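hey so i finally got around to running the thing on that chain from the lab meeting. sorry it took forever, my laptop kept dying and i had to restart like 3 times. anyway pasting the input first so we r on the same page abt which one it is
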Amino acid sequence: MEEADVIRALAALAHNLRLRVFRLLVVAGPAGLTPGAMAEQLDVPGATLSFHLKGLMHAQLVTQERDGRNLIYRAAFDHMQGVLTFLTENCCQGEPCGVDGAACPC
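ok and heres what got predicted. didnt touch it at all, straight out
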């Protein structure tokens, strides 16, 4: 993953509503959600949600698929995993990290 991609993803998640949208889509899993369902659950206007979904899509954190008349949005788990891998690839200075849910000893 390129540094520019990571910066774009982190910048997109640095807004409270975009972070809430992304987390909602993570919970929804592979089934994803329609914009209407997200707007209702997050209690935000559709136009506001649409603006922030475009930001998440630009950062490649969210995918969009048409299903008949509906748009389905899903979290891009593979891209987010790439961001996390980039951020932690030098954990423990390249040595195997024996972390089991605890804080990294680095």
